[in-house]
Write a structure and sequence with these properties.
Blueprint: H1 2-7, H2 20-39, E1 42-53, E2 56-68, E3 71-76, E4 79-83, E5 88-92, E6 97-101, H3 105-111, H4 116-119, E7 124-133, E8 136-145, E9 152-160, E10 166-173, E11 178-190, E12 208-211
Parallel strand pairs: 6-12
Antiparallel strand pairs: 1-2, 1-11, 2-3, 3-4, 4-5, 5-6, 7-8, 8-9, 9-10, 10-11
Length: 213
Amino acid sequence: MKQILSYLLIAFIGLSTVSAKTDKQAKNILDKTAAVIKKAGDIEAQFTATSFKGKTEMGKMSGVIKLHGTAFKMTSDNVVYWYDGTTLWNYVKENDEVNVSVPPVYEQQAMNPYTFISLYRKGYDYEYGESSLRGMDCYCIHLMATEVSQKIREMYLDIDKKNYYPICIRMRRGTDGWTRISIQEFKTNQKYNDSMFKFDKKEYPSAEIIDLR
């Protein structure tokens, strides 16, 4: 579960080298997608995340992520994550314990699949492609890190041509394999309070709190 959250996406569409004009087209699509998501307000998305090592599936989880600016809450059958923009709480149902931490920037990028809204603007080249996914015609944009400091080395975004919503996000960190996040439902203009993105001890009175900060 932690591994899936840390990697977040999958891989491999061997796109050939493209011209500067095509690179510009890719950036234009990313700009439009980022603008659509920023205007969408608070978001709820149902997803299935699968991690791979080569062609071998290493793990899978399904859940719901709620986004509120840089904050998010992610819920699955076994774990719940709250992130208020600074502090991360990770509740493991099986152990009835909560780990509290302040994740570094690269972990924030890996945990929230919508960080590409700002991620792509610096330190990445882009390639343009097209794909068909679940009966939808998509733009397929390939991001490639140009700086060694970038922890996320590659990312692919399948973006619905009709509304510029991302329906599949795939990412590689280092040589650790890929994780694919398939988005089944995407709700915009939700209304969330800041309190939703902080762990509330009253809701989990028996949980052991482990402070790792």
